[in-house]
Amino acid sequence: MFAGLPELGISNGEDLKETLTNCTEPLKAIDQFQMENGILLPTLQSALPFLDLHGTPRLEFHQSVFDELREKLMERVATIAEGKDEDRYVKLEELLEKSFPLVKMPSIQPIVMQVLKHLPKVPEKKLKQVMADKELYKVCAVEVKRQIWQDNQALFGDEVSPLLKQYIVEKEAALFSSDLSILHNFFSPSPKTRRQGEVVLKLTQMIGKNVKLYDMVLQFLRTLFLRTRNVHYCTLRAELLMSLHDLDISEICSVDPCHKFSWCLDACIREKFVDAKRARELQGFLDGVKKGQEQVLGDLSMILCDPFACNTLVLSTVRNLQELLSQDALPRDSPELLLLLRMLSLGQGAWDMIDSQVFKEPRMDLEVVTRFLPAMMSIVVDDYTFTVEQKLPSEEKTSLTYPTTLPETFSRYIQENRVACEIGLYYVLHIAKQRNKNALQRLLFTLVDTYNDMAFGDIFLHLLTGHLTLLSDEFGSEEFCTAVFDNFLLTSFSSKENVHRHCLRLLNHLHQKVLVSYMETLMKTLEPPKQFSSQVCVCPSCKLSHPH
């Protein structure tokens, strides 16, 4: 407990023990020890007996003086560090040399840690001593740990890894939330709100202004994204940069070539729309990638692969298509639409680009613009024609029935092209948001076969189940239940546990609206087999298993 005192020429308990063992007059020896090791203030000696008369133990007095002096010294250390003196760090290093031998003493340790914290470059020997001692490493300030981490990637990785795991768990929990709503879904929190999350704040604090640590975290995120294909790592990459931007950490923002692009995109995500002015800015960044700097495309693609960015780009695409329809214009004539497709294509090619290390924008399939989008717009026209027909007086109506098939080009492209599939899925969400039952029933069956099974991904199913709550009354019809469950969700629930869980989320919310006879069949069908995880449990209200 008092290790280090003899090194500084200060007596400790062992010295007192030796003195008392070898002396002939213990009381005199104690007085002598107190004189030599007490507070060396002549005027104090005459005042101490007054404390004795008040029954105040000497230990209590000395402890209170010590605590006061310690606080004053710690304040003085901070004042010196924040001052302008050229030799301020020399003074702190001298204090560190004197105090470091006592670093294991609990009462002195805070002073040593305060000095270490305020030194921009702690002597290497001291850093190694702190790193080698688990207890010291645990209590030292993050400013000191940064200096240790920047030369110890494995140790930094051990600190960061649990936070990255926690982040993914939180994102996946949000996708499987039992709250189904179109107003409060995965994409509802604003970018600034998301950046207040525990993991982002902790990582931002751990990095501070240290570019080397920032680069390490980005490398961890790239590696994990490659290993798992989990797009939430792309979200964290963007959130981390913008969190440092919020704190005005110019040391990092000024050297990250993606900073201005991310800043502009972040504003679009906040509005959930890419307007014409910002579209021009984003295009300027992409067109401005110089020869020899193509590697930045890897980071830009990862930022565009963030589901929040993708959500904004596709919502903007659907809105752009609606405007084109109202103007009788073609998709290929819209520069804004072509830019949105270019960014979608770059974002969705992120994994391939980082994996292959070939930093080149993926070539966009022009037929998405010239064939797929017109086919999708023809579906909108079909729907509009039928709606107008229904409003006509009976004598003017024709025998027009609602179309049940889809253009072959539409179905083929959502199977074969990643960008087309993403747009097609969001069009389905757009139809559900409009409560358009006929169009939804027409489209759902084609989602059984989509590019890379994107229709059975958690993000789309999370959004679709929320949107379906707007059509809750339609679940009283067997025809609608068949379209949603038999023709789409139940086609893959047995092979995909996540689909099973999303079915149960939906039914947990809507079970009172579902046709009773159909509900009984669903209960038997959706009873989870034994090999399914413990993430589903039986709900007492609807007697159905559903996700925790």
Automatic annotation (TrEMBL):
InterPro entries: COBRA1. It holds the Pfam family COBRA1. GO terms for cellular component: NELF complex. GO terms for biological process: negative regulation of transcription elongation by RNA polymerase II. It comes from the Eukaryota. This is Negative elongation factor B-like. It comes from Sinocyclocheilus anshuiensis. The gene is nelfb.
